[in-house]
Amino acid sequence: MAWPDENQRAHVAPWRFWPGGLALALCTLAGCSPVSRGSLQSIRLAVHGERVDPTAESVASSPYYQLQVNTPGGEAILILAKTEQGRLGWYGTGDDIVVTRDGLIVKTVGLPQNLDDSAFTQRDPFHEGLQHVTAPIDYPRRMDWSPGYRYGYVLQAHLVPGATEDIDILGTVRRLRRIDERLSGPGVDLTNRYWIDPVDGFIWKSRQYVAPGYPVETIQLRPYREKAP
Length: 229
What we know:
Layout: H1 22-30, H2 34-38, H3 56-60, E1 66-71, E2 74-84, E3 87-91, E4 97-101, E5 104-109, E6 114-120, H4 125-128, E7 137-146, E8 150-169, E9 172-185, E10 188-196, E11 203-211, E12 214-222
Antiparallel strand pairs: 1-2, 1-12, 2-3, 3-4, 4-5, 6-7, 7-8, 8-9, 9-10, 10-11, 11-12
């Protein structure tokens, strides 16, 4: 996987949000000052080869749940702007969105390559809880990608639990279990990687392909944690 190098630097931009008065609510919380707007990084700028450098202090100073997203083109910090039936909508500027469910990216909008949909046709080990995975398991996943209308790809997934690793997030070292997921199908061979809390299966960090050739790394800076299954 190719990730941004150390020469990539971040720009700063204000956020916009979609329906329901959310923008007004967030402006009320943050005071809509230039400083509060400047503390929120836009995923739209990730395509320009930018970098963000959050600290524990900068994350704590914001009232929002925050997710760092790193792409081959750059990095951004998104905030949680919508929850619906277990799906979490992490928003950037305009139409830039990353949607997760149980820590798995299930949809993206605004990236050069996008995951339009991801579904499990049989069992869903992510919803069951990855902390329960003690041996390799296999299952199918259906995925839709754009551009190119690449819809209905059914890939065979092979999930393998690994050893525990020390992962530093904002200066706190967490002892997490690594789990690898290999997705294969006609012309497709991808490997996703997840670092989970061994107690409740919460995914603190991941490297997931949202489309062939386009990996996305996620890091939970201020996590939104629902009850473990």
